[in-house]
Amino acid sequence: MARTNNNENFPQYLRVMTHIQDKIRDGEWTYGKKLPSQRALAEEFNVNRTTIVHALEELKASGILESKPGSGTYVSNQNWSDISNQVIDWDTISQYSFHAGSPRTIRKINDLETDATMIQLGKGELHSSLFPTKTFRESIANVSESFHLSGYDDGKGDFHLREVLSFRLQEQGIHYSSSSILIVSGALQALQLISMGLLQQGTYVYLEQPSYIYSLQVFRSLGMHLKGIPYVSGELDVRYLENQIRANKKPSMLYLNPTFQNPTTKTMSWKNKQEVLTLANAYQLPIIEDDIYRDIWLDREAEPSLASMDDGDHVLRIGSFSKTVAPSLRIGWIAGPEDVIQKLGDLRMQTDYGSSALPQIAMHDFLVSGKYDEHLSFLRKQVLKRRDFMVQLVSLHLGDWVEWEVPEGGMFLWLTFSSDVNVKKLFTEAIRRGVLINPGYIYSPYNNQNVRLSYVSSSFQKIEAGIIILREIIKAMERSNYRSCFS
Ligand SMILES: Cc1ncc(COP(=O)(O)O)c(C=O)c1O
């Protein structure tokens, strides 16, 4: 518990020092923990950066913190026992955990995505002005009178919410009843449950290359092998996939995000989907269709999903309200054959007894009252404006170095930089200048020249400011390349 001294006469740098020492003493920050950036600390304490620097220097001098050049400030293990009762080296213990930690770049992005002082140009999350906070509050108010605290349920999630989801899926040509739907805490949990409950170790998980999945440890943590299949302009190389299946002769599964894919925002054609389903039929290949961007279509309605075209039981379809309402709700779902859903529901009971009831009940009201659909039409108009705005700016300021295709839906602009731009340097230099972008190499080792920009996660002004900064960085890189050629 923080014991920060709020006395006005207490020097500000001592206030910061006390706060940091409290966190370490209470075991909240353990040995090896990286401290927030100076900029974030200055913001948190409402002081200038000189005060933060002063406090950090004092703590370093007493051995409580240490600097790693080019990396940041960390909790040191010297004098550790002087300030904390805790002697366990959690860092070493966690190195042997079953689940691998995220790679460095991903951890950096995750840390900076919550830093309010950064310009968020990469984040796959709606800007707060696009969340339907007011109307969702109305739904919470509507359900509050009839809400009763209750015991554990069967792990599948709120029955009424599953009924509405089933009805909405039927409208999209997917005929699953509520007993074939499992509510989960976001699409990511759906992927975790599937890998824990349905796949055996050593399974080959085929997926588009590039793919959002490469930026996560899901599947790999549980001993699955990821096998990228070339995915160019929304076309999965089905012949390549077939050759892989034949050669590997191992249990396999295909993960696809075929509508407004993260990160490319491309959609697979109807013909390409048919080819995939034919292959799935021939090789009894189960498919996970992650379809969480479907509702953010911009120019025309999204193409039919794989699940709606499947006349066998090959496809498990995942949805989520994270991209259209808000990630903090943590509501997603899996629709699939009833016995598979039953198995995943059982696993859910073993894991956490199911999702929290209140957000589900409020979400049900939000859907049946028509507020969700009203919000979607508002959202599409806003997202369309932002997409056009970003495309215009990219063309104006970055057009000399990048190629892109205008996305028809989703949240991202997938840029391909010419080979003279060092994207790794651009990423680090942009962070130094307060702009966060997502480099393509976190989505596949072959996408070193790509960057994923998001047109939904910042205000119009910040989008513009961020793109101008990217231009300045590239210009400066060009000047220094030029100088080094002649020096
Ligand atoms: C393709 C894809 N699947 C799943 C997720 C995770 O979504 P959720 O917040 O519903 O767990 C994301 C988040 O960015 C995503 O892009």
Automatic annotation (TrEMBL):
Keywords: Aminotransferase, DNA-binding, Pyridoxal phosphate, Transcription, Transcription regulation, Transferase
Keyword Electron transport: no
Family the entry assigns: In the C-terminal section; belongs to the class-I pyridoxal-phosphate-dependent aminotransferase family.
InterPro entries, sorted: Aminotransferase_I/II_large (IPR004839), HTH_trans_reg/aminotransferase (IPR051446), PyrdxlP-dep_Trfase (IPR015424), PyrdxlP-dep_Trfase_major (IPR015421), PyrdxlP-dep_Trfase_small (IPR015422), Tscrpt_reg_HTH_GntR (IPR000524), WH-like_DNA-bd_sf (IPR036388), WH_DNA-bd_sf (IPR036390)
Annotated GO MF terms: DNA binding; DNA-binding transcription factor activity; pyridoxal phosphate binding; transaminase activity
Keyword rRNA-binding among UniProt keywords: no
Organism: Salicibibacter kimchii
Matches recorded under Gene3D superfamilies: Aspartate Aminotransferase, domain 1 (3.90.1150.10), Type I PLP-dependent aspartate aminotransferase-like (Major domain) (3.40.640.10), Winged helix-like DNA-binding domain superfamily/Winged helix DNA-binding domain (1.10.10.10)
HTH gntR-type domain ranges (all copies): 10-78
Taxonomy, superkingdom: Bacteria
Cofactor list: pyridoxal 5'-phosphate
PROSITE patterns listed in its UniProt record: HTH_GNTR
One Pfam family matching this protein: Aminotran_1_2
Name of the protein described by the UniProt record: PLP-dependent aminotransferase family protein
Signal peptide bounds: none
